[in-house]
Design brief:
95 residues, two-stranded antiparallel ribbon, 3 helices, 2 strands
Length: 95
């Protein structure tokens, strides 16, 4: 009969562990269709109208409760329509 060989771990051999790195970036899925982008433009416009002053992209995103990517889509739509203008210090204001 064949003998089974067993290996014993000694105190000198530490256990091998794997560590997964936490992802720091969130993937945002944005549906690219005219209806969705139009709604995001409306969210951006309303946030600027309520604030009644120029705001940064981050401030607009927070006020409208949408992601930065969705904010940028909405801003692009509103720029194309001529409803907003860019002012100093990378801020956006209603035209």
């Amino acid at each position: 009969m064949a003998e089974k060989k067993t290996t014993k771990k000694t105190a000198a051999e530490p256990k091998k562990t794997t560590v997964k790195k936490a992802s720091t970036t969130k993937k945002v899925a944005v549906a690219l269709n005219t209806e969705n982008v139009g709604f995001k433009a409306g969210d951006v416009y309303q946030a600027l109208a309520v604030a009644a002053c120029s705001m940064s992209i981050e401030e607009i995103s927070k006020a409208a409760s949408i992601s930065i990517e969705e904010t940028l889509l909405g801003i692009g739509w509103l720029f194309k329509e001529g409803k907003i203008v860019s002012v100093e210090d990378n801020k956006i204001a209603l035209a």
